[in-house]
Fold:
Amino acid sequence: MSSSSSSFNSNEQEQSVTNLVKIHSLTQLLKRDREQLSTQSRSIAYYHPNIDRDKAEQLLRAKYTRYKRDGLFLLRDCTTSPHDFSLSLVYGDKCYHYKIQLIYDIYFSIGMFINN
Structure:
């Protein structure tokens, strides 16, 4: 195999990965993973797509009361920005919420603590 052929394959693979990231949003990838896992009788326990902040806090407080583990978290769809997510977590018996924003279609940024 010539070096130009090897280089072409490497560039081709890199382009394929770049296209995959551009084509699929995190929401789509999580949904696909959830569907694949559901056929195996499992689920992505940390992702709750259709809950709001109050429901997230209810779920986290129930688990925290039972297990007393700081750092319990869940990922949910952001209710104020359709393409973003929220990370909800419990620490010291308090719930915290962080907005996760998609930047340039390939990077995610975790924003500052949001407590309304």
